[in-house]
Amino acid sequence: MREVLEKYKTVVESEVNYWFKVGKATDFPENSGACIKYNTKQIAVYNFARTGKWYATQNLCPHKMEMVLSLGMIGDREGIPKVACPMHKKNFSLEDGSNLAGEDLKIATYPVKIKGGNVYIGFLD
Amino acid sequence: METVIIVGNGMVGYKFCEKFVAKSKSKDFKIIVFGEEPRPAYDRVHLSEFFENQDAKALEMASAEWYSENRIDLIVDEKVSEIHRLSKTITTAKNRVLSYDYLVLATGSSAFVPPIKGVEKEGVFVYRTIEDLEGMLGYAAKLKAEKPNAKAAVLGGGLLGLEAGKAVMDMGLEPHIVEFASKLMPRQLDARSSQVLQLKLESLGLNIHLNKATNQILGNGSIVGMEFGADDILNIDMLVISAGIRPRDELGKTAGLEMGVRGGIVVNNKMQTSDENIFAIGEVALYNQMIYGLVAPGYDMAGVAVHQIIGKAESIMPEEIDMSTKLKLIGVDVASFGEPFMPASKGYSIIFENKTQHLYKRINVSHDGKKLLGGILVGDASDYNMLHQVYLNGMAIPEDPSQLILPASEAGSSFGSVLDLPDTAQVCSCESISKGDICSSITEDGCNNLGDVIAKTKAATGCGGCKPMVSDLVNETLKSLGKEVKETICEHFDYNRQELYDLVKVSKVSDYQETLNTYGKGHGCEICKPLVASIFATVTMETPNRQPTIQDTNDRFLANIQRNGTYSVVPRVAAGEITPDQLIVIGEVAKKYDLYTKITGGQRIDLFGAQVHELPLIWKELIAAGFESGHAYGKSLRTVKSCVGSTWCRFGMHESVTFAIEIENRYRGLRSPHKLKGGVSGCIRECAEARGKDFGLIAVDGGWNLYVCGNGGATPKHAVLLAEQLDDEKVVKYIDRFLMFYIRTAGPLVRTAPWLDKLDGGIDYLKQVLIEDSLGIAEDLETEMQGLVNRYECEWKQAIENEEVMKRFKHFINSDDTDDNIKFVKMRGQKKPEAWV
User: Fold this and answer.
1) Segments in B205-319 forming alpha helices (H)
2) Nearest Cβ partner for A64 among B57, B552, B836
3) pLDDT tens-digit profile of A39-75?
């Protein structure tokens, strides 16, 4: 199952080759995550309405390899926006995907843009 | 710049690097580490955990990046083959030559394989490295495919042998332990404690064979058995040898360093070998004629060697090395400290033994009864930290020393305050942090809570065993400074749960976001969100359907999320009474959606393995057949368990089922700080286990006895008597008051038993409030509860009737596909999730 993890690599906005439309902004619950599918990838998209920002990460929690991060509660830790995995409450930064307890776990992040009321996620391919 | 070469990248070798980086601020040293294993140092002590997840990375002491970030050259998979002391160089197996100024040998030890005839056969392993384990796993998988009830033996009943026993048990093989001595863990335990441990391990399924000297290993090519005597044979399919260790001292020998008679490289108290530029630490070092096979002395040796090399000559190894140890073997606490076996000439022993609970505690005290000299704990080592400190610091002990080990009385612990420890007392032995370090981080450095102290001092960041003591020290120190130790919810709210409950109730804020804006700061988290949800559930009796995004996943999807991200479904079966027709419906639904079914401990049926989109479909069918949510997913009332009572039972005094149904239906859907369970027994035989519940009723002559604040689980506790011989109406009144008072005042995730423990005045105070109405709130509590009862509605019915809510039950926002990551395998005719990687 490790190979599933290999699918997810952080994409930075400047390198995006393809913006994939995942739906209307209003489809996404406020201050919460939701899951979208892109080819064989599962991406968690977070509508952080309190700050008006959007984030996207892999849906897979690298701790026990379960597709659950979009179900996690979001919020902040000392100002850093984060998601808490619903399984064992591992906290990840939504900004850079790092584990906030300093554990050796990291999740891939993806750029999000909102255009014409639609939500787009950026990918390399 | 001077070069330090470390030979060996095990736990002690790694610790040397860690301490070196922390101590030598200057850039005067170049550090090169050689490891012969293919990966960086890992936690060998917890090797058996590898079987649970087969995640070698999780065991790593530090990642490869850590070494490079700290400018350490880590070279794995390359053995150092020779030392040339004259030229101060080493040669590696790949024929590289490097020169050193200081050489540190941390080559550790290897498993000792006794010269028994047949040890070379296939299926015989040693237990030492991850590669050994991978070999065992592969062999075990092959065995099980051919033979479902294959057996494996471990040769050696010491500490490592028992760990290996757990490993083979986890592999699904029938585990056997074969020990040469007459008892398990002969080095650490006396005969009686060893027997208590043996009984406990046997009850867990280990087969133990003592007094067995193995003559030969049987089999033609691969192992089929062990022969002890002519007619004494144990048939097994695999053998793991764990019969002790031998120092890996080859390099010392060939380099002409002074060696011990039975191996090991001789070192002085500076950890120097007979060559002053070569150090030896850990299990390869022979200090005071001894090899120390524990990790803590190895870490201390690493610290001394670091100090010596960076020029702090005063740091030396103490004459006497503390061999105290505490560990969990197959889930059983075992600890020994100081002098565990003591001859009568030196003092007296006080022994407490309870074989029914697999408990053994022994302390050895001096003849004058004033000093603790050592001891052994099996089954419960929760007092180890304190006893160990008392021993190490020579602290005074109670006049009646038996109080140190007898089960805690009402009066509380006999240890006194943690603040009585001397400042030099070492609290965290992994990181060498003393009580003084911890206290001064608060008094001098301005730390204000446990998190700050841990971040500042690094205490409790190793094995974590000292965390309860660190936490006590922090709280006591803060109190002694007159600082309030306030339990706030999280960084977003400076209130405790009770304060926020009152604020929400009085101010009528409408939802979580408004509560956060009004009373909190920041953007919330997974601690305050469900807590506020629980408060709203009580104050406005709203179901989780109104504010779904602040609920725990379970409440958001009205089902219990399970191992592979699928859910389980539990319909309410009040008091466990169910008709044949209802049983058939549950059976049909389970069959239709291919769900794993199991009877729960709360007298109902759990259906596992549903995917999120199937939940509404399943519930539509269940609701059509008259079922409703069982709230198994919520911090809420679960079940009221009952026995059949006087309806059927010839001993029954009252109709316990009827009353249990009434009570369960009254409080169904009630949200609380933690889950709630009830029980009703029809007579004092107590078949419903009512005293193991948050509230329990037992039928007696003249009515019901009401017990409160019990639970099973990790810290089992019997409920205590609140009132006797009550009629039905009084029972309901008192439970109303009790539950409402608990819901208002308890902290988050605190069950009724610990809530009562912390309540000033305990059960007597509770009786005053609930029965004598000392606070004048009894009527208020009843009215509030009646309001909640009146507003109950099934949240699943609410969900399937509302299209907005139904949108939630979908894995993807942009596709109707389901999660293809979910995989099941078969087990005993049903499905189960595929194991974690």
Assistant:
1) 250-254, 295-310
2) B836
3) 999 999 999 999 999 999 999 999 888 899 999 999 9
Whether the per-residue pLDDT at B410 is higher than 50: the answer is no
- With beta carbons under 8 A apart, name residues in chain A contacting B552: 73, 86
- Distance, in Å, from the CA atom of B387 to the CA atom of B380, rounded to the nearest integer, reads 13
DSSP string spanning B121-137?
Answer: SBTEEE-SSHHHHHHHH
From the list B188, B48, B19, the residue with the least C-alpha distance to B106 is: B19
Q: Which residue of A has its CA nearest to B63?
A: A104
- What's the maximum distance between 2 C-alpha atoms anywhere in chain A? 39
CB neighbourhood size of A123 (10 A): 18
Q: Are B297 and B305 in contact (CB under 8 A)?
A: no
Kindly state the tokens that stand for B568: 């389980």
* CATH fold for domain B560-790: Sulfite Reductase Hemoprotein; domain 1 (3.30.413)
Topology classification of domain B124-243: FAD/NAD(P)-binding domain (3.50.50)
Q: What is the pTM of this model?
A: 0.55
Instruction: Give the C-alpha separation, B478 to B476, whole Å.
Output: 5
Reading the block at residue B539, the tokens are 């104050």
* Beta-carbon pairs below 8 A across chains A and B: 98
- Note whether B492 contacts A75, CB cutoff 8 Å: yes
Among residues B242, B56, B221, B52, which one has the least CA distance to residue B131? B56
In terms of C-beta density within 10 A (0-12 exposed, 13-18 middle, 19 or more buried), how is residue B363 classed? buried
| Interface residue ranges in chain B relative to chain A, Cβ cutoff 8 Å | 57, 60, 63, 491-492, 513, 522-526, 528-530, 548-550, 552-553, 556-557, 561, 563-565, 811-815, 817, 819, 821-822, 836-837
Residues of A in contact with B39 (CB under 8 A): none
State CA B354 to chain mean position distance: 23
Of A45, A79, A104, the CB nearest to B57: A104
Domain B2-110+247-310 CATH assignment equals 3.50.50.60: yes
ipTM score:
0.94
Structural domain count, chain A: 1
pLDDT band at B452 (very low <50, low <70, confident <90, very high): confident
Distance from CA of A15 to the nearest CA of B (A): 24
The answer to whether A84 contacts B526, with C-beta atoms less than 8 Å apart, is: yes
> What confidence category does residue A1 fall into, taking pLDDT thresholds of 50, 70 and 90?
low
Q: In what order do the strands lie in the sheet with A32-38?
A: A32-38, A41-48, A53-58, A109-110
* Residue that is written with structure tokens 């003559």 in the block: B215
What's B325-416's CATH class?
alpha beta
In this prediction, residue B462 carries a pLDDT of 66
Contact A47, A25 (CB under 8 A): yes
Q: Quick one: CA torsion of B789, B795, B797, B803, rounded to 10 degrees?
A: 140
CA distance B62 to B54: 17
Cβ contacts of B794 within 8 Å, gap of 6 or more: B623, B628, B629, B669
pLDDT of B647-670, one tens digit each?
A: 999 999 999 999 999 999 999 999
Between the CA of residue A31 and those of A107, B250, B513, B530, what are the distances in Å?
A: 20, 62, 10, 14
Say yes or no for a CB contact (<8 Å) between B549 and A30: yes
3-state SS, residue B271: coil
Higher pLDDT, B194 or B421: B194
User: Which chain B residues are within 8 Å of A30, Cβ to Cβ?
Assistant: 549
With a cut of 70, say whether residue B200 has pLDDT above it: yes
- What value, to the nearest 5°, has the Cα angle with vertex A65 and ends A59 and A67? 30
| Distance between CA atoms of residues B101 and B647, nearest Å | 87
DSSP-H helix ranges across B123-245: 130-146, 159-170, 191-203
Q: How many CA atoms does the CB half-sphere of B95 hold within 13 Å? A: 0
- Outline which parts of chain B fall under CATH 3.30.413.10: 560-790
